[in-house]
Amino acid sequence: AARTSGEPARAYVPSMGQMFLRRFQLVTQFRQAMETGQVKIHYQPKISLPSREILGVEALVRWRHPEFGDLHPDEFVPAVEAAGLVDALTDFVLEQSLIKVRKWMDRGLRIGVAVNLSVRSLANLSFPDSVSAVLKRHDVPPELLTLELTESGVMADPQRALPVLRALSNLGVVLAVDDFGTGYSSLAYLRQLPVDEVKIDKSFVFGMGSDLGDLAVVRSIVELGHSLGLTVVAEGVEEDVARDQLAAMGCDVAQGYLISRPLSEERLEAWLQARTAQ
Ligand code: C2E
Ligand code: CA
Ligand code: CA
Ligand code: CA
């Protein structure tokens, strides 16, 4: 709502005013926060369901804010997007993630990384060139990079997204549709997009042990995904039962708290060591 000048915002709409102020602060501080190391990436392992070996990690951004504490992306990425700063975030995450992948390669480990994209990147015709450049800079093969796009983001305007998706696909990176099952698209429509992977939304995976409807959704995504030649990933795997059901259905990859929470760089290294020492 508009207010007249001189009106004390806090007296009238305290929570809205504070929210606005906080959003404003976050946006103005964001670039510097990336430069000073307040913005960090946590990595969540993804495992192969038949073999349980680690295939890769998903990069999930975190902000250790001096005043507001540890912020999750849901608390600042929307503001960063609205302010037109999301390309800087994507560049930062790509850069940091590929540095990690390169370090693992140098130690003989083949671990890929998945980076979340904002829908805005799909409208940026120079984005594929910047992805190509960062891969070259770190000498990482494209198949070790997965780019995750939300279903709603791609489907909002598939015709507009298509040229960028095609160019990314031609680079050889893996394209994944995130949060699958929550949008309005039909799986058949996916056939027209150059995607390689679907990630079943965690809301269905949480419920599959107790809700037959969720179980049916998961099963049909696995079957149709496979019939379209896609890799199927389940996120939000929190319990043994879910992992075992998914493995029995032939789901390819699992990610979730059962396997590991998202970990800081240091903790991920410890996790990897413990696992490879087995
Ligand atoms: P997402 O891509 O769907 O990521 C999965 C989210 O589920 C993460 O939340 C992760 O911590 C959480 N999660 C993973 N396994 C489990 C589980 O077993 N149980 C439960 N309850 N949760 C689980 P997070 O890290 O808070 O990220 C939220 C969203 O923020 C992400 O959802 C993604 O859309 C966005 N995001 C994260 N990093 C970036 C980034 O670098 N750039 C952009 N544009 N968006 C990002
Ligand atoms: Ca994701
Ligand atoms: Ca491809
Ligand atoms: Ca997701």
Report on this structure.
- It comes from Actinophytocola oryzae.
- Residues 23-276 form the EAL domain.
- The chain is of the alpha/beta class and 278 residues long.
- The chain has twelve helices and nine strands.
- The protein has an eight-stranded mixed beta barrel, surrounded by four helices.
- Helix 5 runs parallel beside helix 7.
- Residues 1-11 have low confidence and may be disordered.
- Bound molecules: ligand C2E and calcium ion (3 copies).
- One calcium ion is lined by residues 178-179, 199, 201, 235.
Percent helix, as a range, is 40-55%
The N- and C-terminal alpha carbons lie at a distance of: 60 Å
Ligand catalogue:
ligand C2E, calcium ion
**How much is the average pLDDT?**
91
How would you sum up the global shape? Answer: globular
Query: In which order are the strands of the major sheet placed?
Result: 1-2-4-5-6-7-8-9
Tell me the structural class: alpha/beta
- How can the largest sheet be summarized? 8 strands, mixed, barrel
| Overall radius of gyration | 20 Å
